[in-house]
Each structure stands twice: as structure tokens, then as C-alpha cells.
Amino acid sequence: MCYGSVSIRLYIFAHNNLRTALALRIGLKLIYAFTCARVLIPRHSSDGISPGGYVGGGHLLIVLERTDEWQIGFVFLHGRFRDIKANGLVGVKNEVGAILPAVQDGMSAINEWKDVAVLNVESSRLAKWYDQNLLLIGDAAHVMSPVGGVGINYAIQAAIVMAGIVGPALLQNSLTESHLAKVQKKRIWPTRVVQWFQGVLQKRIVRAA
Ligand SMILES: Cc1cc2nc3c(=O)[nH]c(=O)nc-3n(C[C@H](O)[C@H](O)[C@H](O)COP(=O)(O)OP(=O)(O)OC[C@H]3O[C@@H](n4cnc5c(N)ncnc54)[C@H](O)[C@@H]3O)c2cc1C
Q1: Pocket residues for ligand 1 (CB within 6 Å)?
Q2: What is the bridge-based pairing of β-strands 142-143 and 117-126?
Q3: What are phi and psi of 139, to 5 degrees?
Q4: Cα(139) to centroid(ligand 1), Å
Q5: Helices in the chain by DSSP H: which ranges?
Q6: 20 to 30 Å CA-CA from 99: which of 128, 129, 165, 197?
Q7: What domain range includes position 195?
Q8: Does residue 141 sit in the same domain as residue 109?
Q9: Is residue 1, in this structure, part of any structural domain at all?
Q10: What is the reported pTM?
Q11: Domains: count for the chain
């Protein structure tokens, strides 16, 4: 089927490489962030470790089972990494061991900071998701934290809304900035609500720890 020619140029970004540059131009709201220091330790059937989430000492420990290793994620509020690093690896091992003594032996395999992968998890959204001939959707417009496991849904929903609004306008060669604004208008509230909820949930987890 031929839909005719389209002479409007529109860039839709669903990856966030451009975001940092754009944030300077159109404003970024950083809601909260946390950090996960991840290590891999050897796994044996006699370890007595169960995968799951463990809390204690103001930290969250996430234990995942891999083929030959346990993946241990030590989660703390963003900004605390400098203090944690200043206490040295021994401090981390002690804190992890205090939360889950069963991993203490395995943690002796971690002897250098290079064995620790540090992941900063951001939650943020741009004040404006569009500009002339430009539309950002998904994490490019609003970075979602892993809390609640909803980020992928939100990215897909944004794509569906975008297709429903921008698609017909492109086919009719009538796309204007107001169509791009409409995409943001439809998605901003669900995004605000879920990011607020993720923030509350994360603070509760850390407070309860
Ligand atoms: C540690 C962690 C765990 C998470 N766990 C979950 C979970 O369990 N469930 C959940 O729903 N959400 C989870 N999230 C959130 C979720 O990952 C994101 O919200 C979601 O992936 C956003 O989808 P997206 O398509 O917008 O962006 P992305 O998934 O980041 O996709 C962007 C794509 O663009 C590509 N790309 C980058 N640069 C370029 C370029 N220059 N040109 C072309 N392509 C490019 C990338 O390779 C990538 O494929 C998690 C987030 C983190 C940080």
C-alpha cells in the first residue's frame, strides 16, 4: 500500500546518549538515585545461600544465582559510595557478611576494587521531551529505576502512544510540534506517578534495612 510521500523530518530517539546534551537545553529533573556494588563469588551446593533480597544496616543485599557463581548486589543510597570506599573493601565485606553471614566465606575471594562493578542507578525525567523535529521516548525521556520492574512497560507504552499520535500525522504530512507535545502530555502523568512510587518504595526499603 502506498501512503504517499512524507516531507517532514522527525527524529525519534529511544536511547539516551543524547540526553545529557539535551538536558542542558531542556531541563532534567533528577528524582533520586542509588548505587549497587556488584560482586561475583564462587557458588557451591554446600554454601547454604538462598537467592533473594536481604536487608540490614541500612543496606539492601540482592543475591542472584548464576551457573557457577553467586551475584551479590550491595545496594546503598547514591552519594554514600565515597564513604564506603573510604572504609575499604574490608568494610564492605564486613557489612555484607553482617547482613548475610553465609556469604562471608565467598567474599574472601574479593580482594581488589576491580572485582567490584559499581552501577549508579538513576531515576530522572526531562522537563520537555520534544523539540523541533525531535521526540524522546522511553528512558531517553524518563530514566526508570529497576524498582517495581516497570521501565520496559513504560517504554513500550510510550512507543504505542507515539505511534498513535505521530503516525497518522506523518501519513497526512501534517505533523507539528503540537503532536509531539501531545505525546508528552499523555505520558507525563503516568511517568510522574510511577517514579514517585518508585522513590517511596526505595526509601522504605532502605529505611527498613
Ligand atoms: C539495573 C537495572 C535493572 C532493571 N530491571 C528492570 C526490570 O526487571 N524490569 C523492567 O521493566 N525494567 C527494568 N529496568 C528499567 C528498564 O531497563 C528501562 O526502563 C527500559 O529498558 C527502557 O527501555 P528503552 O527502550 O527506553 O531504553 P533501552 O532499553 O536503554 O534501549 C535503548 C536502546 O538503544 C540502543 N542504542 C544506544 N545508543 C544507540 C545509538 N547511538 N544508535 C542506535 N541505538 C542505540 C541501545 O543499545 C538499546 O538497545 C532496569 C534498569 C536498571 C538500570
Answers
A1: 14-15, 17, 121, 138-140, 144, 146, 149-153, 155
A2: antiparallel
A3: -60, -25
A4: 7
A5: 19-26, 81-86, 88-99, 104-107, 151-171, 177-208
A6: 197
A7: 11-27+127-208
A8: no
A9: no
A10: 0.76
A11: 2
